[in-house]
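thought: fold this chain, then report.
action: predict
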Amino acid sequence: MYPRRQIIEMFSTFARLEGDRFQQWITDPRLRRSIQRCSPHLSDLQSDKAWSLYWYQQWSEQRQNVSQSAGQNINQSASHLLAESHLSAYLQESCYWVAQQISQRFQTNQYTLTDCFQLASSEVRRVLKRYVPDRGSSLKSFAAIVLTSALKDMLRQRQVADICSDWSLLRRISKKRIGEVLEQAGLVESDILQYRWAWLCFQTVYVPTQLRGSEQLPKPDLSFWHSIAHLYNSKRQAQLATPGPALTPEQIEIRLTKLARWIRTYLYPAIDSLNKTKTGQDGEFQDDLTADLAPSLLDAAIQQEEIEQRHAQRSRLQSVLNQSLEHLEADLQEILRLFYQQGLSQQELAADLKTSQPTVSRRLKKAEECLLAALIHWVQADLNQFPNPDELKTINMT
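observation:
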């Protein structure tokens, strides 16, 4: 991919890919006319950074105006979409470099460079929503970090979805993701809350008895659907501002089946080819990193992001373990301290505590299991990951 040098090109052209290779820049006539019309009135904007900040401010202001206007949807504002489209054009190279890096990391024929490019482009609205110019980072640098993280997360989720049954997907997805799925499905707020409550009832009632095989959980039998419907109906008045009518087990099943389908649609968004100039389309945002500077800048951004994530996770993990230790019985805390900090063997612990070695072994195992349970809960709640049985064995051995 060769970089665009002129301001007009940066904000009005889109990349055409064929066979996982960049072919050419395609001009969008409407965007070109728009930038040409603005240029004489904004002659003080000399750099692409200045222009990107200008269009971001237009996008942000119009987004706030439209969201505050009764009866309007944010996606219906022409000026808002125009600013989006200019930023979409401006951010083309970044998605390309991010996609190239990630497709090489995953090293699978299932996700080509073009696939990753399209997936990354569908996530750039997230970049704009999270971007804060006052913090000093350029839009290009910020986009590289956010898109890399988002794309890795999307591909990991897709790998999980590929092997999961509908019921496993419903068990694995987080509450935050459910909200995003339902919003993407276009439901009104009252329906979103009702679907979310049905999902929470499913989570409460349908609990697998073992971790192994959780990727292919079977469809719940009729008794489960009756239990889910009973919980939904008995608590809906207290849980929902607009509770709606009571639902039958069959209606609950239909809703959750729809929800599973929407989850897969969310994980596999239908993205039109970026070979076309799709101005004004949701998610068509990509970043501009010139070809000669992009690899080093992107590598540095990825490395810095991963270092910060590891530090933050290590700090949260330490806090979780400290809190768990404080809730242990005093004798269990003492056994852990002597065994791990002082390095005493179980035989030495038994002599020191005036008890038998099997008793020490049982108490030590109990303490470790308590800490392991806290660790698993943290991994599921904070990282939204579900360790498989082999990982649990490894953690337990460690």
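thought: worth noting. The two ends are 47 Å apart (CA to CA).
final: tokens above.
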